[in-house]
Write a structure and sequence with these properties.
By secondary structure, the protein is an alpha+beta fold. It is built from 64 helices and 44 strands. The strands form twelve sheets. The protein has a seven-stranded antiparallel β-sheet. The longest helix is centred in the middle third of the chain and has 31 residues. It starts with a strand and ends with a helix.
């Protein structure tokens, strides 16, 4: 029984303390006046009566009621029911005087001058109780108030006395006897009656309607947030303007958390004075009145729930972990079924009429039932993870968190992990862990209903039924007596609180009340104590987790096969079949990734341990250790799957004999894992073992007692420890004292012996084999423990351990003792914790502390011996370092450092998405040569161990090098490594082997840096190649040729003089000294020394008509340059003197820049308009950036439009040129004249165009014929359709170009055909940068038009390229490679830049093709300008699409016109800061895109482009070094090619190298090259039409990059020989080609290359001099052409392949289709069919096309010849009869004919689908004379009649029958 109320208190306003503004309350009276012994009076009640502060009011408020909760120091909750009403304050009387002898003292406020009429002060009646019966308290206090306010004739003292002495049973039971009934019905002696419903089961919380209300106020999601926040220990604050609601909400939240109890600060109503409590660091649930909302704004880590507004605000810094996924969804659904049943039927056409939610009280219980189910599912099987460590005298229970999470598969789950670590769960284990106690609804649910919940998952009706059942039980528990609800309590009359003259609440007589209380107490003491028998029982455990979880099916389907492998391998090891074991071993290691395999390993190893010991030989030991390590390496420190736990007994069992008396155990080799340093792991292990021993202890006892019964109860053996414990606890009270003591002692000593055992075990696993190295401090594992407890390693120890790496011997003892101290401390800490928890006596604990140092010391001594002996074992052989092949002249700078090549993000090499063996990680060595960084090694995976892996890249292409720390799998040390990234799209991610000292790694980095950024360009490999320092000093060269020296000096001097100040951007080189140039000889044909006189400076400024002899040599050289050859090819001017120069030539070659004086970055000879004088040029050049004035670089041979290039204009030039023509000028200023000259210059260009001679001088396009307009051209799919070939150029072409969408293009990038040309087409378009041309207005009088466009700058190219590299070669693997790759590819914007360049180029091509000239004037004229200009020429002029022409194009536009290769490639130290900008690579990528769209237009192959893009940054050749011709001359590079004979095989020019290679092998040649004459290409440029170049993504690990041709040759032959030797085995023709390993073009060359190669080999065998491949190819093509001409059925364009290669022609067709150029098939492949049969209409036409398709893929004709023979056929009209070989083919349904039987080329086809009839014929003119006329027959098709004649009548009949049967079959 318990008291209903402990105290009754009267609290009033305290008038004495009003100074500070807020008043205070004071306790006026309390009963009983002295505290109960068992329950002291709580402090601070006056604060809680008026939580928002005591204040006076000007009007009477109605009485209010709420319940506050106070928690005392013993964490007992006291419920304070506060009933507050208002009383008038007599403020008119100045001094106090007593009223009725017991009135209150009132006092006025002197400070307020204006007195309100009347003030009212609050007064509270408070009941303090430990029971939460809010309704009863409300009624009782209400009754007292009613007696007072209505003046009932009942003594208040009696009522209060009765209230305080009323006792009720705490929990209801099943016994419903009469007196109990009476005890429940209470009366306070005022004619009232109340029934108190006490819950049946005390442990279930009482919630009445509060939970349902909480959901109503906040909604499902918000309450779930709060629920999860409370469970994961966040701070929660409720706001509301109603106190009662705050209390209810807090109560509801606690009720939801059942069976967990909230154990932190819990204040449902927090008074204003205590608001600073909110900033406490611990979690809390607190309610605060909403008037204090502003004070809660700055709380950063509090979840605030506003009950009135229905919101929950989670601050940004707070992360609430929500329930794990399926549960969260299920809970939400269940809650919505309960709270909103209409939702289910909301969409029904005929909704049931009677759907309504249950009453609030019932709904409340249903919600709680949902949460009860949730907890049962969350904690299912928890009892199987309880460890019982002690049973007597008190059960001690621990929960094995890691095992629980592991078995549930929720180790990653944030929410559950936090809940299990929380205080609430710790309380749950203490309270509910006990195996023998009374049980409640939750215990039953978790034990018996989990299976049912599992089965009902997803069935809403069943779930709802279950919820309703649970809700019934909960409701019954709260309201056990539904019948007795006859309350009778008087209520005050309506509006009584407004009465004016209400007397104050009377003072009560303490004596009366106290007397009543004393009476009752005395009566209670005499009454017999009511003992309620607790119904204790054994707590059921429910099904084990495994039984519940197996439905998840997380065991893999193929795991049985894997486990078989593991078992076999282990049995092989123990049977000493080492070779077999070795074969299976990699598979076993791979299988260890799976949990099942790891468990299997531990079980199998267990079987091989006899009497705790298994002695192995060295090899077996090695295998077992490797398996254990592999098994442990995937274990987390938690060891949630119990793998480390299962291995723990095994590591002390397996051992090997090192020498007599010295044994090495397995534990010394498996210490590298974090799990051993995790103290929680050791605790869990310890408790598990203790539990087993204690179980054994009691099982033995039982067996002694029940020996006779044993045979009857056979299977009683497998009792769990908890069952035994509960049995023991049941018997405990019945045992004798001695027996109890004996059991306690036995248990204690069991625990103690286990502690000793574990001290030993821990020292085994924590002391390293080499005690001079402290592994503990290196690994991070211990750090975690440190952070939990106070760090106990003193600095000195930590310091000395850190030093011990570097020191050699001599400090051995000191260090080992450090290790020892360390381990001793670790073990001591463990022992302290577990022994105090499991109640080991103090003496025993002290004994342990003494023993531990000895144990550790002994172990160290045995380890020293083991360590010494183990060193004598022969070391494991590391693979031999393989030496890389080097180029001629390439030298090793650093010998190989042993490293591991780690996988980066590229999938294929690591096994990846394609499958295939993991080639990486590979172990080998890294070499640094003068040219490359090379890794060469073998994969660590034994399955591919015999392959060689090579990865290399030129040092010059290194873009980023950073240090990293990697864990190379082989051993778990973290190693230092490097990540080297190259702009040839290669990445070397290497980890240095531990044998590599860190300083040699440093030396490697320094060397690398020095080689990557030489001081000067002469330091690059292209110059240093093959030069040993001795050669460099050849004195002979000095006398040999002085002229050159002076020439180059003069050039430089002159240029410097003239340029003077203009040229600031370039760093000036000093010419190198002669000695360094010894290897560059020079032609000797010029005798005279070139003298340079002063007049030369003038001559650069005056127009030169004749060329001075002193310039002759320069000019000779210049003429040989590429650009000049090209000018002459295009007929753009000659170099003759002005007298002989024909006047009608519009352009001339100017030598104004021959000394590079005007523009250093231009070539020496330039094409300018004939009419412009040289000195004008000098002035014009100043308007342009870098002096790069407009020069002609190409002319359209048909329209005579020219393409010009220049740098962008300087500001003044733009203004002068475009703005100020008509503006009045103040005088002929410099600007003005320049701009006029500039205008003249442009006008001269325009005048040069032939069609400019229009009468009006306007360039109207009327002169053009329409044929001119739609000039033939190709759109990007080789369709020459009748589409308009010109882009739509409307007025605002510039603005359109400037926008994102360059042209009004159709979906695939072809221009729209609308609005063809505007009336007036400008003669010259200037394409300029939008930002430069701001404010330029088109001028109607000019003949040129400016097209402003936006282009990206070099910075953007660099950034984009970096991202592209990261996308194609990511540094580290990502979880979803395909998505990540595509996303990062898009983010790099590389393709959109290519799209832009192509778009501009196609625009320019269009303009040129329609006869307008174009000047491209962007940036400085050497990056994007060069890209665009080169592409325009490539697209417009087929010559540049040949090998020779492309070389010329690159030499002219890129090299001569000064693209800054050295600067953009960051080739020297000076360029290091600017970084690598792949402008040229971008151009090559554009060419690659065009090549893909027009594969038949290019003489060179894709490989040629890749070759260039690799070598233009590799610095192997000198071609792409330096920034301009001027600099190349300065270094003496430019003219050396001619005179100097190459002594060695070192090629200085990439072009020579390509020529030589091209003569040898067809690697650069495109077999599909079949150009159409004068073809202008117009590629699609939309991003959807662009492909990522495979140059960026492919690699060949078998040989490294294939672009250094010498290195990759000569390898495959060995492979083939090896294959041939083994002739006994059946030879397979199959080759396996790995995507990233083999070089596909070499392992499986295309058919033509293969045929050429075979031809070559045959010629060699026959001893002939092999013919060059090109000659062979040309012959084949020529013969094909002549054949074609004879038949006359083909067009030259279809001569794609030669007749002997018909098979290959078809396969190529297939290839073409893949390349996305599908429509070429009909051009090239079906010429044989289309020549004779054009498609017919209707159904037959449909059939025709299928046969065509069929013929494409048919390998050879002979396979389907149903019938064949020779027939005479009459030719077409007026043609003679000819014998032909006919083939009837049933499969293809056609009749084919050939010239002769041997012929493979079909001459014509008659499709049988078109045959109408077959009739006997008559001989016609010219028929064979000798034949019977019955042998003639005619075949009538839809198109014509064929006349045939056979040798004789039978044959003719046979043919007719055969053809007839074919027709009828069809």
């Amino acid at each position: 029984m318990a008291r209903l109320a402990d105290y009754f208190v009267l609290v009033g306003y305290d008038p004495g303390k009003r100074g500070s503004g807020d008043g205070q309350g004071q306790i006026l009276q309390r009963f009983p006046e002295k505290d109960w012994e068992d329950n002291p009076f709580p402090q601070g009640i006056e604060l809680f009566c008026q939580p928002s502060g005591w204040q006076l009011f000007t009007e009477r408020n109605p009485p209010s009621f709420f319940v506050a909760v106070l928690t005392d120091i013993n964490s007992e909750r006291h419920y304070c029911a506060c009933f507050t009403f208002w009383e008038a304050v007599e403020s008119t009387q100045p001094q106090s005087h007593p009223r009725n002898g017991e009135g209150e003292e009132e006092e006025e406020e002197p400070s307020s001058p204006v007195q309100p009429a009347q003030l009212f002060a609050p007064k509270s009646l408070v009941l303090v109780s430990r029971l939460d019966h809010a309704e009863v308290f409300r009624n009782s206090l209400g009754l007292i108030y009613t007696i007072y306010v209505d003046g009932l004739s009942v003594s208040l003292e009696n009522v209060i006395g009765n209230l305080l002495t009323c006792t009720i049973p705490i929990t209801g039971g099943a016994q419903l006897d009469a007196d109990d009934e009476a005890a429940r019905t209470i009366s306070l002696g005022a004619g009232d009656r109340q029934v108190i419903q006490t819950p049946i089961n005390d442990s279930l919380p009482v919630s009445s309607c509060s939970v349902a209300l909480l959901f109503r106020q906040l909604g499902i999601t918000n309450v779930l947030y709060l629920f999860c926040a409370a469970l994961t220990e966040h701070k929660i604050l409720f706001l509301s303007s109603s106190y009662q609601r705050l209390t209810d909400a807090c109560r509801a939240l606690l009720a939801l958390m059942f069976p967990l109890k909230y154990s932190f600060t819990y204040v449902p109503i927090l008074p204003a004075q205590l608001l600073e409590v909110l900033s406490t660091p611990t979690p809390f649930i607190i309610g605060v009145h909403s008037i204090f909302q502003s004070e809660t704004q700055e709380l950063l880590d509090v979840v605030i729930a506003d009950l009135d507004g229905g919101t929950v605000n989670v601050p940004e810094c707070v992360h609430i972990s929500l329930l794990p996924e399926p549960l969260l969804q299920q809970t939400r659904e269940a809650l919505s079924m309960v709270l909103d049943p209409e939702l289910e039927v909301a969409d029904l056409a005929f909704p049931p009429s009677t759907i309504s939610a249950a009453s609030l009280k019932m709904q409340d219980k249903e919600i709680r039932a949902v949460f009860l189910r949730l907890f049962a599912q969350l904690l299912q099987g928890y009892r199987w993870c309880l460890h019982i460590i002690r049973i007597h005298p008190e059960p001690v229970i621990r929960f094995h968190k890691a095992a629980f999470l592991g078995q549930r598969g929720l180790t990653e789950d944030d929410f559950l992990t936090k809940v299990l670590e929380g205080m609430a769960f710790a309380g749950f284990v203490t309270e509910r862990g006990a195996p023998y106690r009374s049980i409640d609804l939750f215990d039953e649910l978790v034990a018996y209903e989990v299976k049912r919940m599992r089965a009902e998952e997803g069935n809403k009706q069943k779930i709802l039924r279950h919820i309703k059942e649970l809700a019934e039980k909960l409701y019954k528990n709260e309201n056990p007596y539904p019948a007795v609800t006859m309350h009778k309590v008087q209520k005050p009359t309506e509006g009584c609180h407004l009465r004016l003259h209400q007397k104050p609440f009377p003072r009560l007589d303490e004596g009366t009340v106290q007397w009543i209380i004393d009476q009752a107490t005395a009566k209670l003491q005499t009454a017999p104590p009511a003992v309620k028998a607790e119904k204790k029982c054994m707590v059921p455990s429910g099904p084990p987790i495994a039984a519940i979880m197996e439905r998840n099916g997380n065991a893999l389907a193929n795991s049985a096969r894997r486990l078989e492998v593991v078992r076999n391998c282990i049995s092989y090891v123990f049977e000493n079949k080492m070779l077999e074991a070795k074969k299976l071993f990699p598979a076993v290691l791979r299988a260890m990734k799976g949990r099942a395999a790891r468990h299997c390993l531990t079980q199998e190893l267990n079987l091989h341990v006899q009497q705790n010991r298994a002695v192995l030989d060295h090899q077996q030991f090695d295998f077992i250790i490797r398996m254990m390590n592999c098994c442990l390496q995937d274990c987390t420190a938690m060891d949630e799957h119990g793998i480390a736990a299962a291995l723990l007994p095994l590591v002390t069992a397996f051992c090997r004999k090192l020498s007599p008396g010295i044994t090495q155990f397995a534990y010394s080799c498996v210490q590298e894992h974090v799990v051993w340093t995790n103290i929680q792991f050791w605790e869990a292990m310890f408790y598990c073992d203790v539990q087993n021993h204690i179980r054994a202890l009691y099982l033995d006892n039982n067996e002694e007692n029940h020996t006779d019964e044993e045979n009857t109860e056979g299977p009683q053996e497998a009792k769990s420890a908890l069952e035994i414990a509960s049995e023991q606890l049941r018997l405990w009270p019945t045992m004798s004292r001695e027996k109890q003591q004996e059991l306690i002692q036995k248990e204690e000593s069991t625990v103690f012996s286990q502690a000793i055992h574990y001290a030993n075990r821990m020292s085994y696993l924590l002391l390293p084999l080499d005690t001079s190295k402290n592994r503990l401090l290196r690994s991070s594992g211990l750090g975690d423990v440190e952070s939990v407890s106070n760090s106990f390693v003193t600095n000195s120890i930590a310091g000395s351990v850190a030093e011990s790496y570097d020191t050699e011997s001599g400090f051995e003892d000191a260090e080992s003792s450090d290790v020892a101290n360390y381990v001793v401390r670790f073990i001591n800490r463990f022992v302290d914790k577990v022994c105090t928890e499991s109640g080991v006596t103090n003496e025993h604990l002290k004994g342990l502390h003494v023993m531990i140092p000895d144990i550790v010391q002994m172990h160290i001594e045995t380890l020293d011996a083991v360590h010494r002996e183990s060193k004598r074992l022969p070391p494991i052989q590391k693979p031999k370092l393989l030496r890389p092949n080097l180029l001629v002249g390439e030298e090793c700078v650093m010998e190989g450092l042993r490293v591991y090549l780690m996988p980066d993000g590229r999938e294929e090499a690591a096994g990846g998405n394609i499958g295939g063996p993991p080639l990486l990680p590979a172990e080998g060595a890294i070499f640094l040569t003068t040219y490359r960084i090379i890794f060469k090694g073998t994969p660590t995976d034994p399955l591919v161990g015999e392959q060689v892996v090579i990865r290399s890249f030129p040092i010059a292409s290194l873009t980023k090098e950073k240090k990293i720390n990697i864990q190379a799998q082989v051993d778990q040390f973290i190693q230092e490594g490097l990540q080297l990234r190259s702009c040839t799209f290669q990445l070397l991610k290497i980890a240095f082997d531990e044998e590599v000292a860190s300083d040699s790694a440093e030396v490697f980095r320094k060397h690398l840096h020095k080689l990557r950024y030489p001081q000067h360009v002469r330091g690059t490999f292209a110059f240093t190649v093959g030069q040993s320092p001795k050669q460099a000093m050849q004195p002979k060269a000095k006398e040999k040729n002085p002229s050159l020296r002076t020439l180059s000096k003069n050039l430089v001097k002159n240029a410097k003089k003239t340029i003077g100040r203009q040229y600031v951007t370039r760093k000036k080189y000093t010419p190198p000294t002669w000695e360094q140039r010894s290897s560059q000889h020079f032609p000797e044909d010029n005798e005279d020394e070139i003298s340079v006189s002063e007049e030369m400076d003038r001559s650069t400024l005056t127009p030169t008509t004749t060329i001075k002899p002193s310039d002759k040599m320069t000019i000779n050289h210049l003429v040989e340059r590429a650009c000049c050859r090209d000018y002459q090819r295009m007929g753009l001017g000659t170099l003759s003197s002005s007298l002989t120069r024909s006047k009608n030539e519009p352009f001339r070659i100017s030598t104004v820049n021959r000394m590079y004086a005007i523009c250093r970055s231009y070539p020496g000879l330039l094409i300018v308009p004939q009419s412009i004088q040289d000195n004008t040029i000098q002035r014009i050049s100043r308007c342009y950036r870098q002096n790069r004035f407009p020069v002609v670089c190409w002319r359209n041979s048909r329209t005579k439009a020219v393409l010009l290039r220049s740098g962008g204009l300087h500001g003044k030039g733009v203004v002068g040129l475009f703005k100020s023509q008509n503006a009045p000028t103040a005088g002929p200023s410099q600007t003005d004249s320049t701009s006029l000259e500039q205008e003249k210059y442009l006008q001269a260009v325009i005048n040069s165009m032939p069609h400019y001679a229009d009468a009006s001088g306007r360039n109207t396009l009327s002169g053009f014929t329409s044929a001119h307009m739609s000039s033939s051209g190709k759109w990007g799919s080789i369709r020459a359709s009748g589409r308009m070939s010109s882009y739509a150029l409307n007025m605002e072409i510039g603005s359109r170009l400037a926008g994102k969408d360059l042209l009004g293009a159709q979906h695939n990038g072809t221009p729209s055909e609308a609005s063809f040309l505007r009336q007036h087409r400008a003669s010259l378009y200037i394409i300029g940068d939008k930002s430069q041309l701001k404010g330029v207005k088109p001028d109607p009088l000019q003949h040129w038009e400016v097209v402003p466009i936006e282009v990206f700058d070099v910075r953007q190219v660099k950034a984009s390229f970096k991202k592209l590299m990261k996308a194609c070669v990511p540094g580290c693997p990502s979880n979803d490679p395909s998505v990540a790759y595509l996303r990062s590819l898009e983010e790099s914007e590389w393709l959109s830049q290519i799209h832009k360049i192509l778009q501009i180029s196609v625009l320019v091509v269009e303009l040129l093709d329609t006869g307008s000239s174009v000047l491209v004037s962007l940036e400085d004229g050497w990056d994007i300008t060069t890209q665009v200009v080169s592409l325009v020429q490539l697209l417009s002029d087929p010559y540049y699409r040949t090998l020779e022409g492309f070389r010329l194009l690159v030499e002219k536009e890129w090299l001569s016109f000064g693209h800054r290769f050295s600067h953009r490639g960051a080739q020297t130290l000076a360029g290091q800061s600017s970084g690598f900008a792949p402008i040229f690579l971008q151009f090559l990528d554009c060419v690659h895109q065009i090549h893909l769209q027009f594969p038949m237009e290019f003489e060179f192959s894709q490989y040629y482009l890749k070759f260039l893009s690799y070598h233009y940054i590799s610095n192997r050749f000198r071609t792409f070094l330096l920034d301009s011709d001027y600099e190349r001359i300065e270094l003496g590079l430019l003219y050396e090619e001619k005179g100097e004979r190459k002594s060695q095989q070192v090629y200085k020019s990439i072009w020579d190298y390509i020529d030589r290679l091209n003569k040898k092998a067809p690697i650069f040649f495109n077999y599909m090259y079949a150009p159409e004459d004068g073809e202008v290409l117009r590629p699609y440029s939309n991003i959807s039409n662009l492909k990522v170049w495979d140059y960026y993504t492919e690699e060949t690990l078998s040989e490294g990059p294939s672009y250094d041709w010498e290195l990759t040759q000569g390898q495959p032959e060995h492979v083939e020989e090896a294959d041939r030797q083994d002739t006994s085995a059946p030879q397979t023709k199959r080759k396996i080609i790995w995507p990233c390993y083999d070089n596909r073009s070499r392992v499986e060359p295309d058919a033509i290359s293969k045929l050429l190669e075979e031809l070559h080999n045959l010629e060699m065998e026959l001893g002939q001099v092999p013919e060059r491949w090109k000659d062979t190819w040309d012959k084949v093509k020529a013969s094909q052409r002549t054949e074609a001409r004879q038949e006359g059925s083909r067009t030259p364009s279809s001569l794609l392949m030669s007749s002997s290669l018909s098979h290959h022609r078809r396969s190529l067709g297939v290839y073409l289709q893949e390349s996305g150029v599908g429509s070429t098939l009909n051009l090239s492949l079906d010429s044989d069919t289309s020549s004779t049969s054009t498609p017919s209409s209707g159904k037959q036409g449909g059939r025709k096309s299928t046969s065509t398709l069929y013929s494409q893929f048919q390998m050879s004709e002979s396979e389907n010849r149903s019938y064949e023979g020779s027939l005479y056929k009459k030719g077409a009209f007026m043609k003679p009869w000819k014998p032909r070989w006919f083939v009837l083919d049933k499969t293809k349904h056609q009749l084919r004919y050939y010239d002769s039987r041997m012929d493979t080329e079909c001459k014509g086809v008659i499709d049988l689908a078109e045959v109408e009839s077959i009739t006997p014929g008559t001989p016609t003119m010219g028929a064979p004379k000798t034949v019977d006329e019955k042998a003639f027959f005619d075949l009538k098709t839809t198109k014509r009649v064929y006349n045939f004649c056979a040798q004789d009548v039978q044959l003719a009949q046979q043919w007719i029958d055969r053809i007839q049967s074919c027709l009828s079959d069809a």
